[in-house]
Amino acid sequence: MPEAAAAGAGEEEKVPGIEDSDVLTKYKLAGEMANRVMKAVQSECVAGKKTIDICKLGDELIVKETSAVYNKQKEPIKKGIAMPTCLSVNNVVCHNRPIGSDPEVILADGDVVKIDLGVHLDGYIAPVASTIVVGAAEVTGPKADVIMAAYTAAEVALRMMRPGCKTYAVTEAITKVADAFGCKAVEGFLSHQLTKNKIAGEKAVIQNPTPQLRKEHKDAVIEENEVYAIDILMSTGQGKTKESEMRTTVFRKMPDAIYQLKMKASRQFFSEVSKNFDVMPFELGALADEKTARLGVTECVKHELLQPFKVLLEQDDGALVAQFKLLVLVTKNGNLRGTTDVSFNPGTVKSERTLEDEELVALLKTTVGSKNKKKNKKKKSADGGDATSPAESPADGAAAKE
Predict the structure, then answer these.
(1) Which helix (H) or strand (E) holds 143?
(2) Is the full-model pTM beyond 0.85?
(3) Which of 5, 100, 154, 387 satisfies CB 3.0 to 4.6 Å to 1 for a cystine?
(4) Predicted confidence (pLDDT) at residue 394 exceeds the cutoff of 80
(5) Judging by beta carbons within 10 Å of its beta carbon (0-12, 13-18, 19+), is residue 274 exposed, middle or buried?
(6) Whole-angstrom Cα distance, residue 105 to residue 112?
(7) Mean pLDDT over the full length of the chain
(8) CA dihedral (179, 183, 184, 190) positive or negative
């Protein structure tokens, strides 16, 4: 997320973290769901497919997955989409989620597609993002460079973010990886700390900060039992963004914001948002009436009732952007990989460049778990309910490749 989207959401009272076994279970289950949805969405990214149809499928699968668990609690929990499925192609950096009235975006062979989505169970968020090249069994050239830069930087950050590590140390490591692959980290994007109902917590790792952003964004120390969304975006261009003319369709309701809306369409729209979407991001196509949503959203954004997730482009129109996003759980006994692209095979991405920093290369040789092995034989929610996943594909696919 860009610096402008750094404000947190939700209340200030102390909420349990992953030191609580029930919370840890929810993160893990949400992560497994996100991984499965990612894999299914990737399989639909073929030439001739419309991005709007693929995005809708992703959201439908998230709802299907989350609807199958935590249904026997005395008090129902909130669950579902933590980030609407977005497909951003080539030099589009992020947040591209078309709605019905938008111009069609149709995938073609060779397109570099970033898939970004999120799942939550009881407000505990599992985001994941990855990059594919449509129709390519093997990737070479600049596409390979930028994909491997983003993938490698995410894997480095995943291993570095241990208790006591300072966030700017991770920032510098991301820059080293970008340089090694001849790329630029996209300026000012943040890997946020996650807590219940907060997609943008107090701490964050910033990538490629300007001198002004360095002044504004303070260094912080990673602590045990914290959770982060490692979000790496790399570019073959300048690493600088500009706003797109594409319609912004993803928004988040701002907590505690108050304003008496003037337009009837705005009041109707915001009432539906308040009822159905609470603190998680949503997309305009999910509203009952798209026309009312398009009319009402402008006044809500103007008076800061909603935060827009703007569609951003690389300033260099010919540049390519790649993204990898992982959920990392910082536990006492080692970091856990909460989400990952289980289908990604770095062996098929043939960059002629390589990371040569000895310290980072050694770090990448260390393994990262995806679940507590002792508890892997039998899944059961902490409350004894039916919090079992409808499918059994593991969340640690990438760990097996390390």
Answers:
(1) helix 141-160
(2) yes
(3) 5
(4) no
(5) exposed
(6) 13
(7) 90
(8) negative
